[in-house]
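Worked problem 6 (solution included).
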Amino acid sequence: MDHRKVTEMLKHIVMWKLKDIAQGRTKKENAELMKEMLEGLKEKIPEIDKMEVGINIDPSDAAFDVVLYSEFMDEKALVSYQKHPEHVRVADFVSKINEKRVVVDYLA
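Solution. The predicted structure is:
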């Protein structure tokens, strides 16, 4: 039996449905720009342990358009990430192009 301490990671998942047209761009253009902006945070915010951004390929009405999967050491690291000026800048842009957002944070 392995007696090493298991360290839990905080997993942060966010999904967005984007507006068809916003900020002078199409949904597809905004999804691509949003992905680029979110992925750029990995190099700017040290609290991010892992980050993956995906653009949906499923045409279903139930599908969301963009998903963010990220991992943090703990809640303190997540809060630090959320308050970071670069995250705030991206979140401000995303708030202008999305019509619905859902989030799940859990320890695993």
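Discussion: The longest strand covers residues 98-107.
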